[in-house]
DNA sequence: CTAGTTTTGAACCGCGCGGTTCAGATACTT
DNA sequence: AAGTATCTGAACCGCGCGGTTCAAAACTAG
């Protein structure tokens, strides 16, 4: 990525043909890989999905492996942005802690459950062992970054006396755990679509527990309603 | 493992044995599938791993798909037992709540991080979408069962006044979330071996947070030491 | 021992894959 | 206009796969 516009940049694209083939190929590749898995995907079909001839694929990306590698990296970049954006709500939240956390959680979950995110995690899980470098990178600038940024936010909130956490990294890890882990089972490893109401419920439950443990006052804010 | 002392030595049999070929094949198949993924595995190699001729594989299990299906189901059965066993510690725990939860959590994590469990989850994640029936069954009698049994235990503890939870199912879900989710990142999706000390730390942190939220007294037991 | 079942190795088949080649079509540049 | 870089379709190659066949072997039962 980042070097997309080297030589052939900046054309206006007709609906067909002159768009940046490379990106079209990478997106199509990700779709096919996500659907069939790496081993079951064939380059032919990827080319078809991208509306491109097979040699074109091999011109832009020499190899099925590097095609996969590149398609995955692109997907990581696309995905991580949405998760990080969800955390913006936590910088200097105005209302009460509960609603800020709950909404942040809900946004994180929506990003987490987007079909692209789920497909990405599935593929990483599936082919990660065969692409250790890719896996490491993806984790570092994906979930790890989200967790770090959230830790920063939580630390600020603790400093301003709105949370009673002492280890922001651990709290961040655990808040994310309370959010995402339940989805594993509920979405059947990403196979089932989870209705938004359920996401909201999970976010609410996570926030509840988190505030019970780390809300101001130490006793947590028991919420009867 | 477990293949070392089979009963092949009973007769003058050479290298090949009279063991239940079928099980040997299933175990070998799981090993190869786990290592290479479904699409990249070839039956030839599975047969070799099982010390068996290729037609024998097709005699016992007619098809690569059903071979996979069956191997996975066997692995599920093998795995779930270990996790359920870890929960035994929670029936009428004698000491304090903290140590019981912590040790239970640690055992669950050890089971969760066993190479077989990790491989199983990886394969489910990888090929689940192509085997929806298998995925559903595996989830139902795997994680779902663990979560349900834990909920039972927690409910008993709440009833006897040792926890202040109101929704055992949710608490079970969240305790498991606090345990397993952090491992996703730390083990790099099961690629990295996590040292036992780290498992202990995660179990401790999970227990800490859980008790802060649901320990007796509502305020949770803040534990300095 | 005989009779019967299972396992074995090796050869075989058809197929679809990853990857390449090439001549011709297409689009941008000047 | 010509010139250049790219894209295209189709054919092609070699290979290894899933799956089968078969006759010889190994083992079991009686």
TrEMBL record, chains A, B:
Gene Ontology biological process: negative regulation of DNA-templated transcription
Keyword Zinc-finger: no
DNA-binding region in chain numbering: 42-61
Domain HTH tetR-type positions: 19-79
MF GO annotations: DNA-binding transcription factor activity; transcription cis-regulatory region binding
Superkingdom of this protein's organism: Bacteria
rRNA-binding among keywords: no
Listed Gene3D superfamilies: Homeodomain-like, Tetracycline Repressor, domain 2
Swiss-Prot/TrEMBL keywords: DNA-binding, Transcription, Transcription regulation
Matches recorded under InterPro entries: Homeodomain-like_sf, HTH-type_TetR-like_transc_reg, HTH_TetR, Tet_transcr_reg_TetR-rel_C_sf, TetR_C_Proteobacteria
TM ranges: none
PANTHER family found in the cross-reference section: HTH-TYPE TRANSCRIPTIONAL DUAL REGULATOR CECR (PTHR30055:SF146), HTH-TYPE TRANSCRIPTIONAL REGULATOR RUTR (PTHR30055)
Protein name stated in the entry: TetR family transcriptional regulator
Source organism per UniProt: Streptomyces nanshensis
